[in-house]
Design goal:
This protein is α/β, with parallel strands linked by helices. The strands form 2 sheets. It has a 6-stranded parallel beta sheet with strand order 1-10-7-4-2-3, sandwiched between helices. A 4-stranded mixed beta sheet has the order 8-5-6-9, with helices on both faces. The two termini are about 20 Å apart.
């Protein structure tokens, strides 16, 4: 990447992290997966209960593997052989986790987290319950404002996720949100976290890569 372009992107990240701080959230910029995992490890205590929301980014960066290393009580929603009832129970237990991990559909330069969920379990835990929420995103998730965040979900996140999940929705065929009423629609719970009451409860890690949807 051209160094001048890289400089522009890094300035955008700096603005976003400063905005997160003003909104009582912590922001970190990390260059790679190793730096990310080292920092996350320093924030966790051995034996604590951890859980995750649905996120491709957590797989791409090795966070899931870290949580599976045996040091933590991991409520693993991705464990093989789980029934629908098992997964529902994990969703509920996640509210009592010490630390909850997730990605985000978009982060505005004003330090806001915009997310759209299918069932709401992910955004619910982000809003309340776990003592600590760690959000991991790539630089591609930073947008100018709420309008760009909404458009990003319509044009990229929603169609890509429906395709990945093999959902029978219009966007899985057209590649763009059609504001459908499909029984398999995954865009149901819309949230915007503008600020945190508990300072530092939400920690956002911005990785110097394009990650997730």
């Amino acid at each position: 990447m051209d160094q001048s372009v890289k400089w522009v992107i890094e300035k955008k990240i700096e603005r976003t992290i400063e905005s997160l701080k003003k909104n009582n959230m912590e922001g970190y910029f990390v260059r790679n997966e190793k730096e990310l995992l080292d920092k996350i490890s320093s924030l966790l205590k051995e034996g604590e209960t951890v859980s995750v929301g649905g996120s491709i980014t957590l797989f791409e960066t090795g966070v899931i593997d870290l949580l599976r290393n045996g040091k933590y009580n991991f409520l693993d929603r991705y464990e093989k052989g789980l029934t629908e009832k098992d997964i529902k129970e994990i969703y509920r237990k996640s509210f009592f986790a010490n630390t909850y991990f997730t990605g985000s559909n978009a982060i505005t330069e004003s330090g806001e987290l915009y997310n759209v969920d299918g069932t709401g379990n992910r955004v619910a835990a982000m809003l309340y319950g776990p003592d600590q929420v760690i959000v991991v995103v790539g630089v591609n998730k930073i947008v100018k404002d709420l309008n760009e965040a909404i458009e990003r979900n319509r044009q990229i996140a929603a169609p890509a996720n429906t395709k990945r999940l093999n959902k029978k929705t219009p966007c899985a065929s057209t590649g763009v949100c059609m504001e459908c009423n499909s029984p398999e629609r995954i865009c149901n719970e819309y949230t915007l976290i503008k600020r945190q009451k508990v300072q530092g409860r939400i920690k956002v890690f911005i990785v110097d890569q394009e990650l997730g949807f």
